[in-house]
Design goal:
With about 150 residues, the chain is an alpha/beta fold. The chain contains five helices and six strands, in the order βαββαβαβααβ. The N and C termini lie far apart (about 30 Å).
């Protein structure tokens, strides 16, 4: 099997950076392109979604443009870091559910692998459906869940 495309989610946190680093190392070794994904959601009841792939800001005063701008900055930082590793990367910013975005982009890009951090995989969030849990159960390609804690 050849690896042409790897999808990796980031929320800009230190733990997500660890997962992104793993995606970059794999991409460099395999000659694959990394598709960096950040998904934002405006919710008055949510704090930052720490599961890799999503940014949910609990400030209803932030408008769509500000949320998108923040998400784009997170993706650009990840792309720059991957470029320093010599890895070709493309950014994807979207609103909505992070797990759905990762799965959709992986399908659209014909990815052979999705890389996510394990944050959110324990306790009640695991039972309720964290991003890595959802992705691991629904992906049509391989999934690497990187220990980030």
């Amino acid at each position: 099997m050849t690896y042409d495309a790897i999808v990796a989610g980031t929320d800009g946190s230190a733990t997500a950076e660890r997962a992104m680093e793993q995606a970059g190392e794999l991409a460099r070794a395999l000659g694959a392109k990394v598709h960096v994904v950040n998904c934002y959601k405006n919710s008055s009841s949510a704090a930052w979604l720490a599961a890799s792939g999503g940014v949910a800001v609990g400030d209803p005063a932030l408008d769509e443009a500000e949320l998108r701008s923040r998400a784009q900055a997170i993706v650009e930082r990840a792309r720059n870091r991957l470029a320093q590793l010599g890895v070709d990367a493309q950014g994807h910013v979207c609103s909505g559910d992070p797990a759905e975005a990762l799965l959709m982009i992986a399908a659209d890009q014909g990815a052979q692998l999705i890389v996510v951090g394990n944050r959110g995989m324990s306790g009640a969030r695991r039972a309720l459906g964290s991003v890595p849990n959802t992705v691991s159960h629904r992906a049509k390609c391989g999934v690497l869940i990187v220990p980030t804690s």
